[in-house]
UniProtKB/TrEMBL annotation:
<dbReference type="GO" id="GO:0005634">
    <property type="term" value="C:nucleus"/>
</dbReference>
<keyword id="KW-0853">WD repeat</keyword>
<feature type="repeat" description="WD">
    <location>
        <begin position="1"/>
        <end position="39"/>
    </location>
</feature>
<dbReference type="InterPro" id="IPR001680">
    <property type="entry name" value="WD40_rpt"/>
</dbReference>
<dbReference type="GO" id="GO:0008360">
    <property type="term" value="P:regulation of cell shape"/>
</dbReference>
<protein>
    <submittedName>
        <fullName>Bromodomain and WD repeat-containing protein 1</fullName>
    </submittedName>
</protein>
<dbReference type="GO" id="GO:0006357">
    <property type="term" value="P:regulation of transcription by RNA polymerase II"/>
</dbReference>
<feature type="repeat" description="WD">
    <location>
        <begin position="40"/>
        <end position="82"/>
    </location>
</feature>
<dbReference type="Pfam" id="PF00400">
    <property type="entry name" value="WD40"/>
</dbReference>
<feature type="region of interest" description="Disordered">
    <location>
        <begin position="240"/>
        <end position="267"/>
    </location>
</feature>
<dbReference type="InterPro" id="IPR019775">
    <property type="entry name" value="WD40_repeat_CS"/>
</dbReference>
<dbReference type="GO" id="GO:0007010">
    <property type="term" value="P:cytoskeleton organization"/>
</dbReference>
<keyword id="KW-0677">Repeat</keyword>
<dbReference type="InterPro" id="IPR036322">
    <property type="entry name" value="WD40_repeat_dom_sf"/>
</dbReference>
<feature type="compositionally biased region" description="Polar residues">
    <location>
        <begin position="240"/>
        <end position="261"/>
    </location>
</feature>
<dbReference type="InterPro" id="IPR015943">
    <property type="entry name" value="WD40/YVTN_repeat-like_dom_sf"/>
</dbReference>
<dbReference type="InterPro" id="IPR052060">
    <property type="entry name" value="Bromo_WD_repeat"/>
</dbReference>
Length: 267
């Protein structure tokens, strides 16, 4: 097998360079002389994550598609800590990315199964306040393109970035209670009635009809005497600007053909 470098990282003080090779070895080099200092053995698949500690020049983190996460002492060429990302009933989950916290006391990783793994000192009690499964209801929603090749949400015919803030749901699409919905930017100050998503029946690509969150259009809160959220106001303003631009474009093109299909209205 022809060796290939899949990832490279300098340590915190730039004295060492660590390279990940497709033969599953990590190599530690002297950055000034180019001398090979250590071969770090432990991974069983390709490594695409190398992260240096924010202030400890001895520490380097590696993670790969084999589900292994290692903390290395690169000055000695030894393992300090090891974690294997085994998922019950599904085998291991490949680790796609890792990052240290600024204080170096924690690091977080994401895997191929949509998990966020948080490691560090202290207890996990603060993280127990939120549900185990958190998705946006708009995740995996199908997109379409209009006649101008702009991307639109298939269901609402709106540009995705102009849609109201999404709702938080579990893996089956069931909405979480209102206290969790306020964690979504733009819904912090919403009244309870605006945090209850609308449920509807949607046909899947296989023809099966399932119940899921279909979203909630921005409520005209001014009529109800409620303080509108900042983000909802921005969405309405952007929509108004978009409509004005569309109207101007249509006026400028009024001398052209009149039977062409235009962009669907994003009301």
């Amino acid at each position: 097998m022809k060796p290939k470098v899949t990832m490279i990282a300098w340590n915190q003080n730039d004295n060492y360079v660590v390279t990940a090779v497709n033969n599953h070895l990590l190599k530690v080099w002297n950055s000034c002389t180019g001398q090979l200092l250590h071969d770090l053995v432990g991974h069983a698949d390709e490594v695409f994550v190398l992260e240096t500690h924010p202030f400890d020049s001895r520490i380097m983190l590696s993670a790969g598609h084999d589900g292994n996460i290692f903390i290395w002492d690169i000055t000695k060429g030894t393992k300090t800590k090891h974690y294997f990302n085994m998922i019950e009933g599904q085998g291991h989950g490949a680790v796609f990315d890792c990052k240290f916290s600024p204080d170096g006391q924690h690091f977080a990783c994401t895997d191929s199964h949509g998990h966020l793994l948080i490691f560090g000192f202290g207890c996990s009690r603060p993280y127990e306040k939120i549900p185990d499964q958190m998705f946006f209801h708009t995740d995996y929603r199908p997109l379409i393109r209009d006649s101008n090749n702009y991307v639109l949400d298939e269901q609402t015919q709106q540009a995705p970035h102009l849609m109201p803030p999404p709702f938080l749901v579990d893996v089956d699409g069931n909405p979480h209670p209102t206290k969790y919905q306020r964690l979504v930017p733009g819904r912090e100050n919403c009244a309870d009635e605006h945090l209850i998503p609308q449920l509807g029946y949607v046909a899947t690509s296989d023809g099966e009809v399932v119940e899921q969150v279909i979203g909630q259009q921005t409520v005209d809160q001014d009529e109800q005497g409620l303080e509108p959220s900042v983000l909802d106001g921005m969405i309405r303003q952007l929509q108004l600007q978009q409509d004005q631009r569309t109207g101007a474009d249509q006026e400028s093109a009024s001398s052209g053909p009149q039977n062409g299909e235009g962009t669907p209205r994003r009301g």
